[in-house]
Amino acid sequence: MAVVVKFFASFRDAVGKGQESVEGVKNVASLLDELVRKFGEKLAEHLYHSGTREIRKTVNILVNGRVLNLSHELETSLKDGDIVAIFPPVSGG
Amino acid sequence: MKIPGFGRTGQIKLKSAHVAVAGLGGLGSPASIYLAAAGVGRITIIDYERIERSNLNRQVLHWEPDVGQSKVKSASEKLRAINSSIKFDGIFVKITSENVDQLIKGADVVVDGTDNYQTRYLLNETCVRNRIPFVHGAVEGLVGQVMTILPNKGPCLKCAIPKEPPEKPLLQVLGATPGVIGCLQAMEAIKLITGLGKPLVGRMLIFNGMDMTFEEINVKRDPSCRICGKRGR
Fold it and tell me: What's domain B7-218's superfamily in CATH?
């Protein structure tokens, strides 16, 4: 068992796949570190403002369907079987 | 229409239904065309903008000779030509907190054809408060998203996207993208009216034209949501 991460839209393009299983991460912050280690700079550019670890306002992260408030919920614990979705909401019409 | 579960009863339900389409751009154009063609009895169309040449790649209700004209007038003419038996209310106004209740009053479904979250959140809150189903859609590039908000039965737009994404002044959209999403919104509205199928409640559908995928994100209702949660009501 592991945490399953689902990538949508530009995040899917950045990592080149729609889904990834990640083991051994205790919370969302450590999951993001692991994903950047695995997928490199292109993912980091999508997640963070350039040269920082500040998450872009274009990023939405859901854990088992619940949207996280990224200003104070990055320490949200994860357990095996959790599903994490990362997507950038679009705004045009 | 000889679609199983639709039939004469479904057509009559459509004829007696009232849909409000907020915004007549890339999403509102295809959505209102298919709603009119399907025979929705009354359609309220709301927009405060005039047509610019740069709109024409995606706002298929508006054509070259319409540049400079109001979108409401242009849309009303085309939609009446598609289906003359429909009652159209064309309202040339910007949606604000002062007028939103009146604008969508009596609608069975509201379709999101707007291009900004400020108006979307206003429509979302008003629809939740008035128990009116709201079909959200948005696009950018080759990506689009759709979610249906059924008040009290699933998450609202604020549960799915609590914070407004930053505005992009030069938003690029391939015209076919809102074509896809606007048609899906019309389909959701028709399904809600006729009771056909399973709506996108608690599911955000993401269309990615780059690799031609449709995928779903499960979204749960946030109990602490200020709009639809216990604290908000």
Answer: NAD(P)-binding Rossmann-like Domain (3.40.50.720)
